[in-house]
Design brief:
The protein is mainly alpha-helical. The protein has five helices and no strands. α2 runs antiparallel to α3.
Length: 141
């Protein structure tokens, strides 16, 4: 391009981010790609954050794994942080099994009962129910 082709009012120092005459806008294209990329990254981070309690419970083979999963889903769909905090707390702590000692005590007491070792409890007999005769179906209307 020679000097005679340039308009006399045009400046020679236009920055590159200004839209060119052919319609290409590099700054707009960059911002669209950047915005879409940030939305995807924020979404991935959000879902990864909400799966932390489930990962904690799965790694420790937690007995309340389903409860942790339900709390994490409630936190995800309702956007209530209290459900997520509850899921982290449940996943982080093992609750003691209060039923096991009580079952052992009950089994020990049952074994001490006199005559329980030799006695076999028979199954109740099945009742003989004879089918009732059915009434003949009427033919026609």
């Amino acid at each position: 391009m020679n000097v005679a082709d340039i308009h006399p009012m045009a400046t020679g120092h236009i920055p590159s981010y200004v839209t060119q005459a052919d319609g290409s806008d590099y700054l707009f294209t960059f911002m669209v790609v950047f915005t879409v990329g940030m939305i995807v990254l924020i979404g991935v981070a959000y879902f990864t954050l909400h799966s932390i309690p489930e990962k904690m419970a799965h790694e420790t083979n937690h007995p309340q794994f389903q409860l942790v999963g339900i709390l994490a889903l409630l936190a995800l769909f309702t956007h209530n942080g209290i459900f997520w905090i509850a899921a982290v707390l449940v996943a982080g702590f093992q609750f003691p099994d209060f039923g096991a000692p009580l079952r052992q005590i009950a089994d020990a007491i049952r074994s001490l009962a006199p005559g329980q070792d030799n006695e076999v409890i028979p199954d109740p007999p099945e009742p003989n129910v004879e089918p009732e005769p059915s009434e003949p179906v009427a033919q026609g209307h």
